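[Discussion] Sanity-checking designs against the backbone

I'm trying to build intuition for which residues belong where. Below is a structure token string of 561 positions. I'd appreciate it if someone posts a full sequence so I can compare it with mine line by line.
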């Protein structure tokens, strides 16, 4: 590649694809492209070449008239709450064979689900037959064994792109690897993207759960097709509980409600649609935004609630969509308190009226429905209605929001042994219009370049040279956000000069706790401080916009023991 930086910049812009124009207006995710410096050359026989043009999109096969979710009746289906799964038995603890720990055998299989009363059954892929899958609930420090079994069909029903890294034509179309997002696990149980298995295969994972109470979730992570597998429905919740959290007396039972959010597109027969680029041999698209926004697998569901405080545990399980969530009652905002983020409880509740949730981020909320007794409260993404709470009339019982939650210790910058500067890149070849999205301008198959020592503390400076917000997720660890600092990305791309603008901004109160996914904003340097604790071995860090991760915004890192 011989173009200079300025030529690359000029070649950058292209029109928003139709599915984004149609369905994602102003939803908080900035998704235009900006070129990065030339990508490094091919790194061997595997995973070479850039993707086809991302600006032309179509749906595979003959035209299928779409479903118009806006036309559906609202609030006719009760909100499903995924069942907490009962173990299938006990097995010896791999770390202490004298003890037994719960064992689950969970099958991935094709099923049909009803996303709405007036929509025909939808073919999906599930864990255990439901979407979301069953909730796994564990105690901190108490181990769990899960045998994840792939009982899916041999053919994928969504468009596999065989040009993507790891999805070559020599590999089966249907491959799975299960990641419990946010779990501190030995590497062999982390669902490493290359540790996939096809139909008939399985993996036995050991989750020691040596971590604080938190809202985790599980989903597919097989290289090159995780966006399709998760889109097909492979996801569920994983709740870690502990004594400290119990002591807070937070709402429980029917007053603790998991909310798994994801967007989809359907055809008029209720079947999933996933867009393609229009290039038959390169169907990958750079983002997905559906016009149907589901909660726990339903469109416009309702939930009856007591006029009391409730705990809502929200996970954004969408491929690409960012949410700006708020609650409304008779046109007025209903206040909320965020009490926890990705990796558990905050130090103190963060009161707010709305907040952003990027793909894979979680929020633990307290909401008092007492003032709305006998009325309804609607959960919205911007102005789009997601879920209706029908508040029963009767006696309100108010509970105070705890003033203090889990005491937080800031990871001291004085303990840092290494600071890494890592760029987020979006590279577009002006000749082919092919696109490549990378971390630190490095392809997936290149040698490991981040090798932190076990128990060491590092700062990672995520320098976003693109015009997208990228939710960056590190496996194994929890981290704290230090700050976000604006800089002149264009100047950096042209001359390499790093001109900072203004002062660094601390994280918002609701993201000031333990995180495992951080929004790296465009034109910003996002600094996180990380202790690499738990286990040595090979893990991954990646953008959690699943379309970006597939091309190839994902890199291994190796914790060295
Ligand atoms: Cu991204």
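Best answer:
Here's mine. Compare freely.
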């Amino acid at each position: 590649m011989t173009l200079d930086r300025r030529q690359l910049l000029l070649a950058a812009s292209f029109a928003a694809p139709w599915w984004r124009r149609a369905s994602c207006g102003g939803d908080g995710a900035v998704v235009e492209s900006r070129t990065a410096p030339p990508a490094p050359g091919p790194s061997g026989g595997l995973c070479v070449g850039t993707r086809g043009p991302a600006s032309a999109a179509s749906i595979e096969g003959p035209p299928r008239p779409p479903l118009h979710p806006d036309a559906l009746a609202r609030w006719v289906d009760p909100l499903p709450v995924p069942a907490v799964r009962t173990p299938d038995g006990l097995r010896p603890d791999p770390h202490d064979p004298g003890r037994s720990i719960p064992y689950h055998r969970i099958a991935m299989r094709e099923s049909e689900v009803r996303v709405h009363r007036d929509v025909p059954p939808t073919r999906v892929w599930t864990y255990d037959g439901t979407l979301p899958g069953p909730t796994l609930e564990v105690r901190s420090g108490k181990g769990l064994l899960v045998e994840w079994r792939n009982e899916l069909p041999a053919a994928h029903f969504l468009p596999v792109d065989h040009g993507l890294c790891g999805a070559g034509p020599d590999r089966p179309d249907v491959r799975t690897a299960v990641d419990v997002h946010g779990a501190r696990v030995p590497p062999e149980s982390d669902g490493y993207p290359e540790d996939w298995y096809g139909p008939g295969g399985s993996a036995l994972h050991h989750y020691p759960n040596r971590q604080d109470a938190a809202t985790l979730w599980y989903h597919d992570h097989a290289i090159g097709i995780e966006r399709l597998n998760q889109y097909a429905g492979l996801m569920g919740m994983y709740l870690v509980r502990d004594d400290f959290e119990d002591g807070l007396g937070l709402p429980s039972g029917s007053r603790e409600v998991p909310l798994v959010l994801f967007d989809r597109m359907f055809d008029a027969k209720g079947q999933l649609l996933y867009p393609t680029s229009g290039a038959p041999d390169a169907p990958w698209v750079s983002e997905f935004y559906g016009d149907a926004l589901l909660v726990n697998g339903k469109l416009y569901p309702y939930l009856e609630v007591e006029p009391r405080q409730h705990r809502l545990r929200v996970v954004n399980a969408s491929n690409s969509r960012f949410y700006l969530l708020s609650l409304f009652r008779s046109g007025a905002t209903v206040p909320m308190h965020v009490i926890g983020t990705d990796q558990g409880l905050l130090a103190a509740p963060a009161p707010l009226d709305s907040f952003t949730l990027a793909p894979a981020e979680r929020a633990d909320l307290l909401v008092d429905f007492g003032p709305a007794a006998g009325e309804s409260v609607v959960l919205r993404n911007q102005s789009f209605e997601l879920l209706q709470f029908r508040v029963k009339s009767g006696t309100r019982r108010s509970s105070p929001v705890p003033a203090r939650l889990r005491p937080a210790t800031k990871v001291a910058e004085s303990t840092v042994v290494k600071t890494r500067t890592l760029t987020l890149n979006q590279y577009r070849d002006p000749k082919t219009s092919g696109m490549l999205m990378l971390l630190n301008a490095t392809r997936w198959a290149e040698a490991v370049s981040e090798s932190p020592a076990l128990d060491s503390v590092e700062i990672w400076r995520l320098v976003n040279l693109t015009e997208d917000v990228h939710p960056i997720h590190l496996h194994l660890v929890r981290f704290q956000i230090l700050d976000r600092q604006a800089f002149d990305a264009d100047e950096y791309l042209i001359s390499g000069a790093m001109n900072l603008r203004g002062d660094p901004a601390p994280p918002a109160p609701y993201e000031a706790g333990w995180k495992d996914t951080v929004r790296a904003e465009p034109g910003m340097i996002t600094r996180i401080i990380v202790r690499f604790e738990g286990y040595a071995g090979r893990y991954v860090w990646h953008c959690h916009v699943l379309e970006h991760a597939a091309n190839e915004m994902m890199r291994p890192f190796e914790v060295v023991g």
